Amino acid sequence: MQTLRENKTLITEILSAEPDFILQHVQQAKIVNLREYNNLRVVGHPPDTIIINLLDKVMNKGPEKCLDFVELLQQPNIIETYSRMEEVFNISHTTPSDHTLSTGTRDPYTTSSTDTTGQAVGMSSEVCQYRMTSRPRGHCLIINNVHFNKLEERRGSDKDGDVLTDVFQWLGFKVTVLLDQTAVQACKELKRFGEEKHGDAFVCCVLSHGDKGVIYGTDDEPISTNDLFSPFNGTNCSSLIGKPKAFFIQACRGHDNQARVQLEADNNPGHQIYIPADADFLVAMATVDNYRSFRLPNKGSWFIQTLCKQLKQGCPRGDDILTILTQVNRDVSQKDERYWDNTAEESKQAKQMPEPKYTLTKRLVFTVPPQ
């Protein structure tokens, strides 16, 4: 509490630069409850007034909550956003003048010296977290192709579209669902979304048939996978520079006929998916090269349904997307279905292994906005 009292003016000045960011983290850390959070976020109040009210609220809660708040202020993602917070806690970036070993423990949030290569170690080597405070968080575009000219109807894809809509609306995104897009229509919409004003992140979910290096429009015409990503790279979309762009693609990547009667598959022969060279992209594919992904007509696909389940469980805990996708990999890999192989004239098991690829430069956490 003494630290807050003695540095109240400086802390107020620093935190006033981004009041929404610290308010969200304080609420997530349960330093204030949801009602107090909403009371602090009064529309029209100057940022410094909001922070002063926050500090008063925390100090009135007693020493334990004050300690929790001070520890929060020293976390790496907070320091990254409010770099001047180092002034409050005297976080050092210099090497000690002697080389004696300390017998005490080092504060986990302080920055240690540099190693012999000159590379900073300690806090400076921590992987920071993408900001996720804008309301809405950003756009979530769902392209759900079900009916095609000649290709099979993708029965069960409506289940995937519904659960994706529910989850990303819950996560604070503005969701747009585009049903049955031709190749030209899909490319036009992707370009349009690339020109939109964006929040802290962009999410795109593509549910369709495909082939090597392409996703099919409902007119059975191909869309290059690179054309899915390029409207959102740093060259074409300046408002998403430094912000995460997450793509979740439900399609097979193999050509073998492995589905049982009640189990359907999206045809997308294996290839090495191209991720744009620009940073901050995540592309999560339903399966690895050369294999099918499976979709149950009455339940939806293994990948999308498991993804949404894990997002619902992991996001409130503060799990980052790679942790969540690792759990998705585990859960989907443990699923299996028996099917009859007409060629071999024997019963076999159908398995699936999702595959994420990324050029993320920070931890991507889809924080749940207060409801």
UniProtKB/TrEMBL annotation:
SMART domains on file: CASc (SM00115)
Caspase family p10 domain ranges (all copies): 275-368
Span of domain Caspase family p20: 136-256
Keyword Phosphoprotein found: yes
GO molecular-function term, one example from the UniProt record: cysteine-type endopeptidase activity
EC number, UniProt record: 3.4.22.61
Record domain CARD: where: 1-75
An annotated GO BP: apoptotic process
Subcellular location: Cytoplasm; Nucleus
GO CC entries: cytoplasm; nucleus; plasma membrane; protein-containing complex
Entry-linked Pfam families: Peptidase_C14
Family matches, as CDD domains: CARD, CASc
InterPro entries per the UniProt record, alphabetical: CARD, Caspase-like_dom_sf, DEATH-like_dom_sf, Pept_C14_caspase, Pept_C14_p10, Pept_C14_p20, Pept_C14A
Coiled coil (UniProt feature): none
Active site, per annotation: H209, C252
Catalytic activity: Strict requirement for Asp at position P1 and has a preferred cleavage sequence of (Leu/Asp/Val)-Glu-Thr-Asp-|-(Gly/Ser/Ala)
The keyword Phosphoprotein is assigned to this record: yes
Chain residue ranges for the region called Disordered: 93-118
UniProt entry keywords in alphabetical sequence: Apoptosis, Cytoplasm, Hydrolase, Nucleus, Phosphoprotein, Protease, Repeat, Thiol protease, Zymogen
Similarity comment: family membership: Belongs to the peptidase C14A family.
Protein name: Caspase-8
Annotated source species: Hucho hucho
